[in-house]
Design goal:
Length: 232
Amino acid sequence: MVGPHRIAPDTVLIPRLIPVENGYAAINTMVITGREPVLVDTGAAIHRDAWREDVFSVVSPEDVRWIFLSHEDPDHIGNLTTALDLCPNATLVTPPPRHTTFPPQTHLITDHESFHAGDRVLTAIRPPRYDAPTTLGLYDDRSGVYWAADCFGAITPHPTSDAHNLPLDDYLDAIHRHAATLSPWHTWLDPTIYGHYLDHLAAMDITALTTAHGPTITGHRIPRVFDTIRET
């Protein structure tokens, strides 16, 4: 499925698939539809009308209580102003900004810090690959879903939001190629740091890996993807 669809209880992926030279790239948003609904990243401004229609077909704007931003890149923050305008009861949760001025109703969060969203605890956990240095992922203790921001992205040969729809070897190769473009400073940063982030995720009870830039990963493919990232 390439429209809004449920990937776990109380969790809906809002995919936006874009034709590129070698297949399809994704710019995704996630909605947690629990007692206090959460928008996770806000996509790119170029898709604003479709993004707004898809997101608010899943949750009413006035019900949104939280907006989580993983980092300040344009394809994650592109519809933030729209979201804040339409969701008057929402608090923005984000890493400390480097370039962007955020509104007063902002809660700054750092790695391993948590906040309560009604019936669940959401924890900011840095992914093992990232490009913007402030990037944080988000783990939902109730569903076991981890949003990895840019990490675990992949260009797919045809439109899909489910990694199981792709041949395993081809998919892992796409994961490897995408991961190699992230963390551009890794040549001088201690590589054991990335291994620490990956070890932490591998020890967690994760039911689904979601990413802003690829299909959702579940089941036996999760450890295979971890292995691929470790070897990149």
